[in-house]
Amino acid sequence: MNHRSLLLCLSTALALPAHAQDAKTDVLVYSGVPCGIAAAITAAREGADVILIEPYKHVGGLSTSGINTAESEHMLKWTIGGFADEFYKRLGKEYGTGQPEYYFESSVAQKVYDEMLKESGVKLRYGVAVDKVTKDGTAIRSITLTNGDTITANVFIDASYEGDLMARAGVKYAVGRDSKAEFGEEAAGIRFDKTPRKAATVDENGKLLPGISAWAKDLKEGDAHPGVMNYNFRFTIAKDPTLQVPFPKPKNYDRKRYAILEHWLQDRAAAGEKTKLDAILDPYKRRNGKFELNNKQAAIFSLGHFGGQFDWPDASYERRKEIFGDHMDYSLGLFHFLATDEAVPENIREEMKAIGLHKDEFTDNGNIPYQLYVREGRRMRGETIVTQKDVQDDRRKEDSIGISSHFIDSHHVQRVALSETEFVNEGRIWRMGYAYQIPYRALTPKAAEATNLLVPGAASYTHVAFCTLRLESVWMITGHAAGIAAATASKDGLAVQKVPIAPLQEKLRKQGQVVDFIPGQPEKCEKLNGPPEF
After folding, report:
1. 299 near 280, Cβ under 8 Å?
2. DSSP secondary structure string for all residues of 87-136
3. What does the radius of gyration of the chain's CA atoms come to, in whole angstroms?
4. Residue 254: enclosing H or E segment and its boundaries?
5. Do 396 and 515 meet the contact criterion of CB atoms below 8 Å apart?
6. Taking Cα atoms as reference points, which of 464, 386, 33 lies closest to residue 229?
7. DSSP string, 373-396
8. Could you tell me how far CA 116 lies from the centroid of its own chain?
9. Which one has a higher pLDDT value, 8 or 94?
């Protein structure tokens, strides 16, 4: 498959045609990401009739698109229970280990999720997205999909990364960074790294180079900012030539996009410093000869497309196709630049030529991941808003439906110029993780806005607190709770805000969800594993 047809396949994933088919169901779950899978299956196990809408052609979100870890290395494993624990144990069964497996392959995760959905009886629809939402007062009556289908349901669950159903239902939300002042959060707002980076920031005409978003003098630390964390693809690569297929050539290659990297490499060479590929790309070793590529936090230039993500959360589907394609061009262009450009040291070019896409992953998609890594989209403003204080200090909640323990981990948002020869990265947060209880109210909109909608994905969190929620393992925890609550609300004719908490908690406990702190178990991670703040 050439790059043109590959990109067309990927970028049109949100608009695949489907047969017109109106329907009615008890619970509609939007988005087949791990959060949505957990919600759909747990609701179905409660006896609810469930339809799951997946805009792409595969379920599993980033767990089946290149993120091959539960992120348990940055968490307290005792907090992973319920459906999430079941999924990781099913992975262990596939690998024959007899224990939860927190590192896996996308194709194996795909097999497990597909099997679990088939067993549950959940009805799936692929390749269609929510277009319109019809409401009667505060109750959502139906959604209309991009192919014209209308689906009526008693209760709706928006599990998506972006919160698209939630937004179309008229529920209030936020995008980007809250200011320090709004919620009294020490880590909030615009955040300049402590260490400036030496590299050219302007071209010969004084114009900011691609990848530099603004001048630092025009930004104030602690202020609100609309930008979310950077996005990138999580490519699965191979070092063994027998397992490789070549990286596709970029459709729209522009070497000027890599001018910052070029100047930095030239400066290091002039200073007699040798640079290796792992200063730019950091492959995480996984199973069966597979390596996972991610944005490298400490790199001067890596897979994160800084600034390219700004429009995504509120963008139309057509605009998202453009952003998707731009990220693909940026990524494949970076690989091409590193492998072929004479400005790149020969040793790096040879290292880049020695790797390729793994031939056994994403085999129906040119060996390219199906989805872009959307680290953060919209965030609901619901019945309560979880803040930095809630995830670090006031960590016990009476309406707990699960526990998270991940670090406060925000990737950079943008590069800003300090001068013509120096820039600073902006947006990084890296704070110790604590076990904290996730309140049910963070999944519910305000009752005046929607009474039959649950939002376990784009939940009611500040940006700082959201950094502890945005993991597939944690989203399966909120999805599990949302599925049980939705089935209860549908069966008993209740507003989601009126679902009795004590019976919900008791049911979750019986299903293995970790709702309560466990005496003797640690409540904070003992060390920071991973890159520090800079």
Report:
1. yes
2. HHHHHHHHHT-SS--SB--HHHHHHHHHHHHHHHT-EEEES--EEEEEEE
3. 23
4. none
5. no
6. 464
7. B----EEE--SS-B-HHHHHTS--
8. 22
9. 94
Cα 204 to chain centroid, rounded: 37
What are φ and ψ of residue 133, in 5° steps?
Answer: -125, 130
Extract the tokens encoding 27: 């619970």
Determine the Cα angle at 39 with ends 33 and 41, to 5°.
100
Give the Cα separation of 198 and 194 in Å (integer): 13
Q: If you ran DSSP here, which 8-state letter would residue 322 be given?
A: H
Tokens of 57: 């052609």
Residue 325 token pair = 């394609």
326: nearest Cα among 211, 206, 181: 211
Residue type, 306: F
User: Does the model's pTM come out above 0.90?
Assistant: yes
Instruction: Work out the number of other CB atoms within 10 angstroms of the CB of residue 393.
Output: 10
Nearest alpha carbon to residue 160 among 39, 322, 262: 39
Contacts of 324 (CB under 8 A, 6+ apart): 10, 11, 372
Contact 468, 406 (CB under 8 A): yes
Look at residue 201 and tell me whether its pLDDT is greater than 90: yes
Tokens of 530: 């991973």
Give pLDDT tens digits for 18-68. Answer: 455 899 999 999 999 999 999 999 999 999 999 999 999 999 999 999 999
pLDDT greater than 70 at residue 249: yes
